[in-house]
Every structure is written in structure tokens, then in C-alpha cells.
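yo

u said u wanted the structure for the complex thing, so here. seqs first:
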Amino acid sequence: MTMKGERFSPRIYMEENPKIRQILKIALVVVFVIIGALLVVVAIDVYTWNGFVVRASKSLVDGLALSMLLFLMVSGFFLIFGLCDVINFAHGAFFMLGGFMGFVIYIATEAVFLDPTLPFYLLFGENYFALSVVAFIVSAFGATAVLALIGGGIEFFTIRRLYGNPIAQILLTVGFMFIITQMAEIIWAPSQITFDIIQWSQISYFFISGIIDFGGGLQFDLYRIFLIFLGLAVAGLMFVGFKKTRIGLQIQAGIEDSEMVEALGTDIRKLFTIVFMLGAGLAGLSGAVLVPWIGANAGHGLTYLIFAFVIVVVGGAHYGRFEGTFFGALIVGLSMQFTAYFIPFLENIIVFIIMAIILIIRPGGLTGHA
Amino acid sequence: MKNLLEIQNTHVYIGSFYILQGISLVVPKGEVTLLLGRNGSGKTTTMKSILGIYPPKEGSIVFKGEEITNLPTHKIVNKGIGYVPDTRRIFGSLSVEQNLIVSMRKGSSRDDMQYRLDIIFELFPDMRGFMKQRAGTLSGGQQQMLAVARALMNENELLLIDEPTEGLSPLLAKNLINSLDRLKEYATILMVEQNFRAVSKLGDNFYIFDNGKIVHEGNNMDELIEDKALVAQYLGVSI
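structre next:
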């Protein structure tokens, strides 16, 4: 019971009356369902039933594709933050650079395959489909490797000296964000680069123009479906890796208590470098696979860094929950694409609205403490 | 070599605090050495300086005749030191089995693991029952078993055990101490313990800490318990 003379506090009142709390919870769910249903009804009214189905299914596919892409990026951010306690402000820049690296490596690989004077020409000949797919795979792996080396190098030569000094870490990683962004602007100019504008690129044979048509306006880009499977595959791989391998278990244990992992005989510094490489590599991979869809742009660094923060906070991943990044990415990706198709003017702010609502209801995020 | 570990006149600072003010002690091979004293007297810091978590500014630490004073923690530990920390510090999100796998050092095989598990199950038969359970859901006593078991996953000659009975009920504490007594067969033990009466039959030697210095040492626990003046002055209990 509240004591006499004490100010009324809703939080304490709720804790003392679990039944009312339960009722409020149910009421909240009902309110959300009603709002959702109303939105659906309005949407059907505006776009007609057929238009609604087309838009809804497209936003579902695009939303899942974007979610998976964001998940790949954020899981790298999460690993670095979780194990090394470093908030890597340069992570968005790694992601952006991964895009340009993927682009450059793709164009170069393709040029090598297409050059009749080189022996690789015989590999594919006129089979542009196979050629572009292979060049794309090379570019994705290449961008991952380059960014892993850059991330590992930055950890080894600079951040390693600054563990336990968060202010210096923030300044340093923010500095790297600006350096990488400026370098990208100088080298590739500030404008967006996509495969479409490169006429000699063969990638459109497969990824950009590839469409699955179900009739009735239900067309899906092949590439976005591919992204969904890629994201799921990497997520599955990481999940198994964390559960079954020794190094995965060490990373998980280190996220909880890195000093103890070291006191049990693991070279924690080496593990930090490996995790930095892994995290930056994931940023590189996700940046590279973004290019055929959205393109590469020096401005992506900051935009996607902010998405990373939102996803971590919404998912509750800052409490050390890896699955939080997955759910956070799903919410951000899906909500952005659904609004893009139904309420376009909200596309860029919807994630912040959702973040505010989730933080009011569950301050610890989806998987964090209530 | 009679002494497994020798600490010579070490001075340890944590930040700007002068914690250990010239500690010298030896841990004879095959025996149990106890570090006694009030909270904040420097017992745990001594353990952590052996592990290299708080490396000494001055002085030397020699393990198996080898200087380990300024080595990084993982290298010190890999020479054969197992650590059971004071607040257990088990990895709550992992299962008990995974906690044990993480604790194994590089190059251990599946056979090594089985061999180690046999020793652990012999000491703590109850552990068989909760190998697959998430460590965070274990009771205090079970967590303490796991914390000790973790240190047994490798061929360690020296075990540093910090406050094993802290927060356990008297019965659980007694069972644990019985298990630790049998542990003497496998390794030399350096143990911090507030409840010195509970471990009196375990200890071969003891050092009493006060304000970062060793104020008394001896090798007869029964005499210590009888010495009421000493106990009242440094161990904070008067009966």
C-alpha cells in the first residue's frame, strides 16, 4: 500500500495491483489492434482491395529484405559493442565503404571476365548471367575481406590502446567516420552510384531486372527475395556458430564478463581483434549487397549508423541480447517499407515514432528488462 | 621445489589507491594456504595481482620457479593456475556444459574433457543433473560448484579460490568444504575465506591481512582459533 503523505506514483501503484496491470496490458493490445485494423480498412478504401494486396505483399517482401540487410549490419555493430564495449561510430562508414568496395570489385571482376585478351574470358564467354552472378559473389566476399582488414587494423593500431576510455573511443571512432566518409566523397563524388548507371555492367541481367511475376500486378524483384534468404542464412550460421563453436561460446561469455574469460586463459585482446574483424566484415558484406538494390552513397554512413542505434535500442540488444538485433531489425525494416508503400511522407520518421512508443511501453527494448 | 608460488614484497595500486603495501608470502606445494582478514584488507587484490589483473608496481611473483610478475593474464593462467572468483562470475546465458567448454584451454581434446568431467563429477556428483541447464538459473550452491568446476577443466597445479562459502547456507558451505578437502589431492590451493572457522581443518598455513599488509602468519589453525586476542583484533569476531 502507498504510505500516507507519499506522492501517488503510477509505477508503484501498478506493481501493487497486478490485476489492473494485466487489464491495462490487454487494453493496450486491443487499442493497437483496433488502430491497425482501422489503418487496414482505410488503406483498402483508398487503394482498392487489389491495390492493397499488391502493396502489402510488396512491402512485406521489401521490408523483410531491408530487415535482413540491416540485421547483417547491426549484428556487427552489436558484436563490437557487446564484447569490446566500444560504441563504434564508424560502423555506418564501414557499411558505406563496403558498398563502394563491392561496387569497385564487381566492376573490376567483370572487366577481367569480359576482356578477351585474358584467360578468364573463356570461363564464361557470352554467358553474361553466370558471369554477373560470379562477379557479384566475388564482390561480396571481397568487400567483406577488405572491411574486415580495415576494421581489424583500426582495432589493432588505435582502439587497442583506448580500452576503458570511452570518451577517447567515441572521439576516435567519430573521427574515423568523418575520414572514411570524406575519402569516399573525394574518390567517388557525393552522388549516388548504382549499377544501373554503369551501362557496361552486366549485373542487371540477373539481379536488377530479374523479376518473379505472380500475375495481377504481383511482381517481386528477385534480388530482394535473394536478400531475405542471404540474411536468414547468415543469421542461422551465426546462431549455430555461437552455440556450437568454442570461439562463439567465448565471445558470448566475453560479452557477459570479459575479464573472467581472460582469467580462464583466453587471450582476450586477440578475441577483441577477431570480433572487430568479424563486425567490420559484416558491415562490408551488408554494404556490398545493398548496392544492387539501393546503391552506394557517401551519405549512407551517417544514415545507417542512426538505424543501427535505433535497432539496438528497440531490440534491447544493449542488454547483451543478440536476438534483440534480429527483432529490432525486423521492426525497423518492415515499418519503413510498409510506410513507404502506404504513407510515403512518414517513411523517414516512422522508425523514430516506433522507437518512442516502444521505449515508453518497454524502456529496456523488446528483449531487454521491462 | 618446495614452494609452488612465492610473492616477494609486492606493492599494488588500483588507480591512485595504494592497496597492497609490501606483501610477501609463499604457497608450499601440495598444501592449502589461507588468506584471512577483514573486508578490504587486500586478500582479493593479492589474488588478482597474482593473476596479473592488477599487476604489482614493485616486487616479484614467482610461479614454479618462473617470474610471472608482468605477464598478461592469459599467459599467467596458462602456466597452470585455476581461478574461482569471489562472486562466482559464471556465464549466466550459457549452459553449465558450455561454461565448462569455454573454460578449457586451447589444444584440449574431447578425451581431456571427459577425463576432467570425471574428476568434477566425483567431487560434485550433483552436477551430472544440471549440465544442460542455463547457468543463470542455478541456485547459489550450484553456481559455486560450477565456479570451482570451471577451474578444474584444465591441468592446474595451483587453484586460487576466493570466498567459496560466501552467501551459502551453513549446510551447503559444509558440503562444499568437504569437496574442497578432497580437491587437495589434485592441486595446491590458495584460498581467501572470511569464515575461517569453517575452513580450519582445511588450512595448512595461513596469513592474516590488515590494511594491505600481512600482520600475522602461522601453520596451526587450531592455535589461531584459540588465540582470542588475535582473532578479535584482526578477524572481527569476538565470542
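The beta strands of chain A are 211-213, 219-221. The mean pLDDT of chain A is 87.
cya
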